[in-house]
Structure formats: structure tokens, C-alpha cells
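User: Structure please.
Assistant: Input sequence and predicted structure:
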Amino acid sequence: MTSRLTDFTTILTRWEHERPDEPALTFDGTTRTWAELARRVRRNAAAQRAAGLVPGDRVAVLDLNHPSCLELTLACAQAGTANAVVNFRLAPPEIAYVTNDAKARVLFVGPEFAGAVDVLRDSLPTVEKVIRVGGPDDEYEAWLAAAPPDPATHPAAPDDCFVQLYTSGTTGFPKGAMLTHRGMLAHAANVAPTSRWTRTRACRSRCRSTTSAARATRCSRSARARTS
């Protein structure tokens, strides 16, 4: 399967064509099909370009669990940019360090962290715009809706980075790791055929020996991990 796939944009395009009306993701009671996800990703890529982002630029996400992070990551794969995902457990000085080290031009922030970003705002010189995601002050949907879907795809090289992750900083300030199309495709090829069956079976085995409350918490975390 992966021999025909050259980057993560081709993965999304494939499922959009083969399973347009099948569910791609479900979050907080909302289900989106592969066709709907692909349209939102193209709007995201268009919005990034409208904001002046060019291949090689970084955006950053500071949030808990929200589909916008997936949409941003896939849009970065299409636009040639990269998503620097900030660990929400980092201390404020580390959040600033990661954002500045990545040179993120746009920062997407969940409602739980909007106050912290307001305090840090003067310490984030590369950030040109902060966009709130989710909650009553959501700005993400309007940012997305303002841009028509853009099918243009940056010709990604195998070693182009589209996700930038950072360590927790236990040995000093967080250290960045750049994830490339080549590396992520290899990872997908190795885990896709068996991961869902293995995790589901393991989850059932653990659940039989736990209390109801612990079982619900554990299964919820496992489901989030599978979705991610």
C-alpha cells in the first residue's frame, strides 16, 4: 500500500477518493467523513498561505485534545509548513522556549491555556497571530471559513519536516525532533495493519480486572490514543 504513497497528503487524498462518506474522525459528538476532513484541511492550508506562511515556516499548537491539531498537521503536510506541537504540561518558560525555538509564526491555543499565553505574549517575538481554538471565544472556525479550499500541494521531499515535537525537558530545556514524510510513512506502514486489533484486545484484557471507574478512564485514554 505505502509503495504508492509519497507523502502524507497522498494518504488523505487516497481515503477521500476511496471512502469519501465513511467516518474519518469523531470528537465531542461530531463526526466528519474523509471528504469533509479533506475540505477542512485544504481550507487550513489556504488560510496558512493567506496569513503569509511559506514552506519551511512553523505554526504551533498549545491545547489538550482537539481535531484542529490533526487538521493543522495535515495542512502543514500540504503547504510545506510544519506543526510544532507544544506539550501542555510544560512550565510557562518552557512553553515560550519551544515556541521561540520553533520560530512559530502562528500560535493556536486552547481555552485552558489562553490566559498563560496572554501572560507570555511579550516573550513570543516570532508569533504574529494567536488564534483561540474551542470554547466560547473560538476563533479557529472563522479563520478556517474565511479561506476557500485550496487543492495546491507543495511538492514535499521525503525528508521534509511537517511535524516538530519536543522532549519534556527533563535534561534541560526541551529538545526538538523533526518528523519527516519518509519517517512517518515508514511508521504508518509498520503499525497500521495490526495496531487497532492489538490495542482493542489488550484493552479488553485489562478492563476485565479493573473497577468500573478505572475501566472507563483507561478505555477513554486508549481510544484517544488510537484516534491520535
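The first strand starts at residue 23 and ends at 27.
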